[in-house]
Amino acid sequence: MLRALLALFALLVAVPLAAQPAPPDPAVETARLEDLAAIRQIKHLQAHWGHLALRGQWQAMADLLTDDAVLTFPHGELAGRADILADLRETQGGGADGLQPGRLNLHLWISPVITLAPDGQSATGRWQELALTGTVRQEADWAGGTWVVHYLKQGDHWRISAMGYFLQFEGPYAEGWRHDAANLYRAPFHFTPQEAGAILPQRRAAAALPAEQIAAEASLLYEHGRAQNLTNAFGYYLDRGMYDDVADLFYADARLVVQGGGTWLGQDGVRRFLAQFGAPGLDPGEMNDHLQLMPKVIMSRDGTVASVSAVELAMAGQHEGAGYWSATLNHFVLMRDAEGRWRIASLYRIPIMRSTVADGWVQPLPAITAIPAGGAPDRDQPQRSMSYPEASVTQPISELGIFAPAVVAGAAPEVVPDALTRAEAFDAAENLGNAYGAYINAFAWDDMAALFARDGWRELPFIGVVAGRQHIRDAARVRYGDAGPSNAFQAVHMLTQPYVTVSQEEATGEWRAQMRTRLVQMNSSASGPGSWMAGVYEWQVQRDANGAWAFAGMDLDYTWMAPYAGAWTAADPALAAALQPTAEQMARYRLAAPIRGAAGVPFPAIEALPFHYANPVSGRPPERRVEWTEITPR
């Protein structure tokens, strides 16, 4: 009897001990926190570089470099801060200190893939840059390229130690996206598919932080991501004329200011302001895309207030009618409400540029749009405009990092359970999505497929869903061939504006994320002006037992496709129809499911786009909601 009782006691004790995971190592958790903060700081640093270029603050840009920084082009090199400063002043400023009126210098840094060194003291980033530059009534130019940027941690600050540029296309706006096939240099990949999904080095910090401090600072990083979500949602809702959803993001007593244009108060004021973009919803052939790019997010140390500065690049107008470009600086101030939801307390918009699609920014229009009937502001805004061409943005900005002092001195943030893993999901999902874009630009099908989990699935536009990593790779080869990229034609996929939602599967404990990103695709040609495509991705991302993230699923809905000339005003459904496979071609695919969204490219027709999330403030569901879906390989 005694022996039986002892055996039962041993079983009762042993089972819970075997099932209990080992407690987290404080030195490992501290390193994870430090490295995740480093990734956010690096993204902030590069966005700051782009915001400074817009303002012509060449010296402030040079101050972001190490003393011995190197800038490399395919046919030359600049070494040292002084030489790089002189080059910035000459090539971007026309030899002048500051940006002179009549000059546009918009350099947009998009689609980062960031990898940290094993010791967490240096890093490499791959970025897409899209540049809109020009001088009023003289020239308007495009340039697009890939930057490979090396970063070095110096004390508490990150600095740029080297920048290498690989030109994809450049030239006058009137001529489109062209490149010289004989002198096309593609950027090498500094990362593997596995490194794209395992964003944090496996290391231990030299000095471990207390568990309470790790939890508090990780919660700030998680809220940092959620704050960016809100401003990206603003852009997505504005795209589709979802004005009630836009207004829901604002506090009842919010303020919306357009520099030189007026002040609108409260949610009713927000709705009146939105009247300048047309009636709610989208009519057939109406374009209203508002990309939110190059965000700089700064969070108060108590996690109650955040500011987000982003460049809004807008494409608007009517199919077979007039089309318009515009650029605006958006400065959001967000506050958390009593339920922990981020909401917009104020939005300050600085119009930068507006032009027609026909002429481009060589012949700019007034940057502030006319106020329609019923859209009048509550107050005038007498401050002068800083818009091109009469003036330039002169508002100074500091290099303030991703955190600012607490609103209430000494106040601590609200701790979010598992905040470190939740925060990591934001950057891992974005890294994977942007690596995907880089790989498909290079026709690197093995690497692209390796970003997916073994049983992951991918929606092929016009065709259907393939499931299983091998089938994903094989289907890409069937669709696009296996000869690698062509020097005659470049498809430049840029993914941006991530909205990330994180969850943990109750039954298995598996961490998951869903992410919405925007596709901006500019196709460059060696013999013509090129073409456009745009769309929305919805991603499913999962974390494995080793802490690496991979795609579990991918939806892609194209929204519009057009030749370069005329852009969305000249969208031709016949271009999309030419991409539809024949029955014979369809037979070559091993499909696990049919197309989940639009079968082709609907514009100028308007179809509902997928959202994996409800309105983050009101909870209003979208017209087309996509849920986490398992699709079995065939």
| CATH class designation of the largest domain | Alpha Beta
Query: How helical, in percent, are the residues?
Result: 25-40%
Distance between the termini: 56 Å
Strand content: 25-35%
Low-confidence stretches: 1-19
Radius of gyration: 25 Å
Number of strands: 19
CATH-derived architecture of the largest domain = Roll
Shape: globular
The fold-level CATH name of the largest domain is Nuclear Transport Factor 2, Chain: A
Q: pLDDT average, as an integer?
A: 93
The helix count comes to 13
Domain module tally? 3
| Sequence of strands across the biggest β-sheet | 8-7-12-11-10-9-13
**Helix/strand/pairing category:** alpha+beta
Write the layout of secondary structure elements.
Elements: H1 2-19, H2 26-55, H3 58-62, E1 65-73, E2 76-79, H4 81-91, E3 103-116, E4 122-135, E5 139-154, E6 157-172, H5 193-197, H6 211-239, H7 243-248, E7 250-258, E8 262-265, H8 266-274, E9 286-300, E10 305-318, E11 323-336, E12 342-356, E13 403-404, H9 419-441, H10 445-450, E14 457-460, E15 464-467, H11 469-480, E16 489-504, E17 511-525, E18 531-543, E19 549-563, H12 573-577, H13 583-586
Parallel strand pairs: 1-6, 7-12, 9-13
Antiparallel strand pairs: 1-2, 3-4, 4-5, 5-6, 7-8, 9-10, 10-11, 11-12, 14-15, 16-17, 17-18, 18-19
Helix pairs in contact: 2-6, 2-9, 6-9
